[in-house]
Amino acid sequence: MKTLNKLILLSLVVLVAGSLTSCDDDENDSSKPSSLTLNLSGLEDLGSGYAYEGWIIVDGSPVTTGTFTVDADGKLSATSFEVDADQLAAATNFVLSIEPSPDSDPAPADTKLLIGEFSGNSATVSTGTVSEGDFTASTGEYIVAAPTASADLMGATYSGIWFLNNESMPMVAGLDLPELAAGWKYEGWVVIDGVPVSTGTFTAVDEADDASPHSDGGPAFPGEDFLTDAPSTLTFPTDIRGGAAVISIEPSPDNSAAPFALKPLLHSIPEDAAAGTVLTMGNNTNASFPSGTVTR
Fold it and tell me: pLDDT of 176-216, one tens digit each?
């Protein structure tokens, strides 16, 4: 009987020791996942071919946290992601990029949209990677005019927009915008009868933009005359007064024919605006730029 009792006691000791060892292994398992939660607003549907991807910066290197999409209502397809616990605890920053989908490159693309530094278990993220400058200080001026239109083209007087100031000669740039990081371009727009029409993309405010889709050239500044090749629902030339002038920041490459979420400058074009008169845009940064928090 004494021998049997000793065997039972020995078995219990072995079971308890094994249980403690198992607990220690769980606590020391560096691959144990932990949760990263996104609470972001202002993101928009990227359409087919692109997705958002989160990254944590660990020892100076990016580690993916997973991809997600956003629907037409701004709802994220996923807000919680499992990440290696040790890597998440060591992360200094969170970055959100726009990536091709599918994506064969394991590194983040240049189109980094949001960034934030972890303080404790959370990071407040903003568009700090788009430019080193402050978009809230951006200003814009423009004129309504169609300088490339021939004198006999009826109705062309108010069928163009140029982001310049012509109050003195030589004319000067009408836009004051920070230099963009790689992966981004500015784009001018006029919303005509609810339809956004591009004036072309650009990176320099004192040079012509990269396209003249509806005219034949013009002043050496961003802008466009709307004279030919109108969208199917519009007729050119047209009076753009009563529409809206917009400067957006676009990912490059860009798969959308509509303005991106980042719209630092915006102005309702007065219906009684005089041709060639300088008009001032309003700063729209706080209203249009995405932001949020990330929690680990």
Answer: 999 999 999 999 999 999 999 999 999 999 999 999 999 99
**Strand runs (DSSP E) across the chain, as ranges?**
33-41, 50-58, 61-68, 80-84, 93-100, 112-119, 122-125, 139-144, 160-162, 164-165, 172-173, 175-176, 184-192, 195-202, 223-225, 244-251, 262-268, 279-280, 282-283, 291-295
Joined together, the tokens standing for residue 77 give 């397809």
CA–CA–CA angle 209, 213, 281 (5° rounding): 50
Three-state SS for 273? Answer: coil
pLDDT digits (tens, 9 = 90+) for 94-110: 999 999 999 999 999 99
- By CB neighbour count within 10 A (0-12 exposed, 13-18 middle, 19+ buried), where does 286 fall? exposed
Contact by Cβ (8 Å): 289, 127: yes
CB 118 within 8 A of CB 92: yes
Q: Which fold has domain 33-129?
A: Lipoxygenase-1 (2.60.60)
Which residues of the chain does CATH 2.60.60 include? Answer: 33-129
**pTM of the shown model:** 0.87
- The pLDDT of residue 10 is 41
Q: Mean pLDDT across the stretch 142-158?
A: 95
Q: What DSSP string runs through 28-83?
A: H-TT-EEEEEEEEES-----TTEEEEEEEEETTEEEEEEEE-B-TTS-BS--EEEE
Amino acid at 211: A
Cis peptide bond prior to 106, omega within 30° of 0: no
Residue 261: the pLDDT is 95
